[in-house]
Amino acid sequence: MSKPTQYGIIGCGMMGQEHLRNIALLPDARVAAIFEPNALMQAEAAKFAPDAQFVDSVEALLAIAELDCIMIASPNFRHVEQLETLAAQNPLPVLVEKPLFTTLDDLNRIEEFAAHYPAPVWVAMEYRYMPPITAFLNEADTATGGIKMLTVREHRFPFLSKVDDWNRFNAQSGGTFVEKCCHFFDLMRLALKSEPVRIMASGGQDVNHLDERYDGSVPDILDNGYVIVEFESGARAMLELCMFAEGSKYQEDVSAVGPNGKVEAFVPGPGRFWPSHLGDAPVPKLVLSPRNPKGPEERDIPVDPTILDAGDHNGSTFYQHQKFLELVRGERSTPEVSLNDGKMAVLMGLAAQMSIAENRTVEISELR
Length: 368
Known about the structure:
Blueprint: E1 5-10, H1 14-23, E2 29-35, H2 39-48, E3 53-55, H3 58-62, E4 69-72, H4 79-89, E5 94-97, H5 107-116, E6 121-124, H6 131-144, E7 149-155, H7 170-173, H8 176-179, H9 182-192, E8 196-204, E9 224-231, E10 236-242, E11 252-258, E12 261-267, E13 285-290, E14 297-300, H10 305-308, H11 316-328, H12 339-358, E15 362-363
Parallel strand pairs: 1-2, 1-4, 2-3, 4-5, 5-6, 7-10
Antiparallel strand pairs: 7-11, 8-9, 8-15, 9-10, 11-12, 12-13, 13-14
């Protein structure tokens, strides 16, 4: 019997616990050690990783010799410093949650890290691995004949409460279009196989968190907006975000259109939020709509219930860890989501935030 792959985990809040639940489903993998400074989150994490050793610092975690890889699921504004600590002390393969960084001030630090870090780094972009999105990506080029227009619509619930409410302020989260939407900017680059040129956005904070106060400060995160992105290939993409639309049947609707037709993916939100009186939660769907002959084809894309119940991201966290473990175990040579992918997704989000704040179109070249 082979030795299990040993994870060290940095951060076990809401998303970190989802990672713990999914690692527990993987064969020959275990969480060996955890750094989580919040006592309540420690107690919750222990339920999913009862054999894990808890330590009191990142440095103490990295001093554990038997670790094979690291998972970073700490608050956004901690990611860069923790990656730098890995580089200085124990450069293991690492899966780091999005966003990779939160401010342009960190860009040089990330590029310096990327230039010298000797082990593979995988940026966690769970939306790529949702089964309906994977099906969408597999079908997109054939169904459309080459994507000319790509639209992502997310109508969802407001930001949930996190430890110390760090996600209520742009300074800690990077802003809504970095924190929440870097997933969608990543999907745009992946589907279009092209780089963004310019971004125009409009958004606001119109409904959520306005009556909340933290040390006398009102949250400043946006709760809705539109983003238009022009790509080098000539394709265009649009994001529509609304974070006070949790009554929707589907949380995400992604569509691509080209000269041959259209393909759409419909993704429900977390099953735990679906009202029980409405019966079973919606099933993810893929819809192909050719121009000729006309006639949409609708396919159900179900997810294994055990995997679905292990998190809020339509099973994607499990599938992502499967692939990450292949990297750690030497079964694949490079991360599927690279540091550059993570960097570009953040730059697109920062450009959207800047466009809204300054009421102008932002060239991506301005940020580099």
